[in-house]
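Tokens in:
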């Protein structure tokens, strides 16, 4: 090939370089374009709109900090934020206490037993909202099945109200314990039986195995599961609204305040966007902590 022909090919490639770069970009990102559009329309754009609305004046023009000042100076808003934090912390802690031994037990099951229990947990995790509120009322409501059975047996049982603290806790745990189990199950399965055998050969007991080997490896994943459970409980909307639909909630929450103030237009209330942005801040911080814990746990497993 002559030097003239080679220079012509190089010049032609240089001319079509932007086209080739766009073609490579389309081939690399083309399959992901639908999900990018959906996420932008349903996640990124609403977050931007809510953030803008939280700083908007009542007239809809200009920026102001009065919305945030009004929320944090309001006694009811402070109670709702503290109640939400307390409820979610208790729900996440109970999910860890119940879910950790349950997850470990599932790792010891055979293939059929594990598949059967995974199916049940998956169904329970996705059963929430109005359906779960109805199940709570039908099971342990004032005239629920379990309530009537206990009273028929001569026991005095006064079930908690659906919109009370313990009513929310009981209803939340139905979905969040399975969620915690499903999140931590892969990490639990990574603990190999050979490590326990090696500890026994070295004269270590089961307690030493858990303190020195198993728990240090699993603790970052358990903590990450706690954080995700806390965040999911904080953002849960349908279930508390359905449980509190009968009247004024006994235990006010952020999501319940949003459901009352969000009437029609997104900008109909200046308090609702601020509450929504507060939830987004909690979610962002939780995601950062979750990534840090997973990175720390990956060092061991």
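Residues out:
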């Amino acid at each position: 090939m002559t030097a003239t022909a080679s220079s012509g090919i190089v010049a032609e490639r240089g001319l079509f370089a932007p086209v080739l770069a766009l073609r490579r970009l389309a081939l690399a990102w083309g399959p992901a374009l639908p999900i990018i559009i959906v996420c932008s329309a349903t996640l990124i754009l609403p977050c931007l709109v809510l953030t803008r609305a939280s700083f908007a004046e009542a007239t809809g023009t200009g920026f102001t900090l009065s919305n945030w000042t009004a929320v944090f100076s309001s006694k009811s808003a402070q109670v709702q934020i503290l109640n939400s934090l307390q409820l979610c912390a208790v729900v996440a802690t109970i999910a860890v206490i119940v879910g950790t031994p349950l997850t470990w037990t599932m790792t010891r099951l055979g293939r059929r037993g594990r598949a059967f229990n995974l199916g049940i947990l998956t169904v329970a995790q996705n059963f929430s909202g109005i359906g779960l509120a109805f199940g709570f009322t039908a099971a342990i409501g004032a005239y629920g099945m379990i309530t009537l059975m206990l009273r028929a047996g001569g026991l005095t049982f006064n079930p908690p109200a659906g919109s009370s603290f313990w009513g929310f806790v009981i209803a939340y745990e139905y979905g969040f314990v399975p969620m915690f189990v499903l999140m931590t199950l892969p990490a639990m399965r990574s603990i190999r039986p050979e490590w326990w055998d090696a500890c026994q050969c070295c004269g270590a007991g089961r307690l030493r195995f858990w303190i020195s080997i198993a728990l240090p490896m699993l603790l970052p994943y358990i903590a990450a599961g706690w954080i995700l459970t806390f965040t999911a409980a904080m953002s849960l909307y349908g279930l508390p609204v359905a449980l509190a639909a009968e009247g004024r909630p006994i235990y006010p929450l952020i999501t319940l305040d949003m459901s009352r103030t969000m009437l029609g237009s997104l900008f109909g209330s200046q308090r609702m966007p601020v509450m929504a942005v507060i939830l987004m801040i909690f979610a962002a911080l939780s995601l950062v902590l979750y990534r840090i814990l997973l990175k720390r746990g990956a060092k061991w497993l």
